[in-house]
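Table S4 entry, Peptidase S1 domain-containing protein.
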Amino acid sequence: MLPVFCAIPFICLLFLTIATQVIGRQCGVVNLKSAPWSNQTASEPTQNHITVIGGEEAHKNDMPWVVALYVHGSYTCTGSLIASTYVLTAKHCVENIQLPMYEVYVGYGNTEKNKMQYVKVDQIFNNYWGDISILKLKAKVHTTPVCLPVSYNPDCHHGKTMVVAGLGNHVDADYNPVGAQNGSAVDNIPDNPAESVLWTKIEQLDKITCGLPPYYDSPEFCAGGLRRGTMGGDSGGPVMKVEGNRVVQIGVTSRGYTEAVNHRLFDAGIYVNVGFHANWIAWVTKGAAQFRHMRNPCYLN
């Protein structure tokens, strides 16, 4: 299913294919032997860790595209670089705030904190159909962007592992989010981001786990795990999978949905399906975003 703005679906898909083949060669290139992208399971959560529930600290260049969004000098959300002048994030992070107040800090994923680059935001493009926005920067950023999917069907990836990353606040691995049901778990936004990118591995879950409608081509999907997920300040951050030899961002962190399973916390989150909005992203970025085709398990024996 294509977003309704695309009047000529064939032309839109052709445009995406050309973008993938011509400029999609440099996105998502990292060391796939490093912990986030290898087949090894993330280590057990420690008693105290930062931001992402069950998270581990990313090493230099594991996720160079992860950025921090600031408003009036205060940290608000995570984002991801999808081209040299475009950042993908959650719409609720950038709504109802005047444009001159925005800054994007680049470098959490690939350098020391005191050497990071900050760039002013020139334009904001909000999507009308989901919690997803694109920020156009005033200057180019010379950092590896993440790849995006031409399409992504969550129903075909049930139980599959993915990586979520963020820059949110301190949480305890044994935290007890009283009243965290239906999204309030992500309401506590920190004044400052974490010292570095934190990541963890989560699983694709059935939509009903997060109370999502059972649409076939859903604009959102549900993912998480026991003591693994996202918290305050992680909104707008990327959910990623390895496709071939590249890292592809399949989701944007939107909101939390925490449940108790066998008296243990099951940290399910709701994420925007990036593939559902692929044509809109290609249109907004004027072909600058780089796309990759994802294998569809529904059609594999």
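The first helix runs from residue 9 to 23.
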